[in-house]
Amino acid sequence: MAKRKPPSRKRTRGDRQRFEGKSLKPLVLFAAEGETERKYLQSLRTSRYGDRIVFDIANTGDRSSLSKLLEKIRYEENKNGGDTKGAWIVCDRDQNELHKSKLEKWLENSDKHHAAVSHPCIEYWLLLHLCANPSSSTAQKTEKELEKNWRWGQYKKGCNISSELIEATDRAVSCARQRRSSLDSGADAWNSPQWTDLPELIDWLDELDPKEKKR
Fold it and tell me: Which residue of 16, 117, 183, 214 lies most exposed, with the fewest beta carbons within 10 A?
């Protein structure tokens, strides 16, 4: 009778050790407020970073509250162990001011924790890829302004994000920072009529990108 083979150990998502002498790609966790944010992150990964960085985007519902996003990102962190390069919350300010203190506490818990908050909505960030001076300061008007400037059919929340828009990322970062320069010192997503922290996410990912480090 042939000997039974010992049961093989299955790899889990949290078991990301070196394999055959090759370094695994950096893993980044995300919890995003809605489908538009998730579609943007998917397109950003595909069009700007290719397969050099792994984006693990949590399956959250549309218009998830900041409190729910924090619950989800903690779950994903526990599932992946300490093998991630960072964990990001991506959301709008809107009703999430109620949970600001919870976010601040989570950010203080680890230097791997980050947040990209936009106001009035994610569409403000998308608009900066297409025009230098978005004029709208409410979510509804910003969405309407984006619809007028959208170049890939009809814009609606949760639609696919074109790679052509991602190609204008550096322009959007520059526009966002230029507009910040006109605001008072201490301005941020929680006290400004227009703001986005997404330039900080881009800077962080660019630094993490193995391609950038080879230059």
Answer: 214
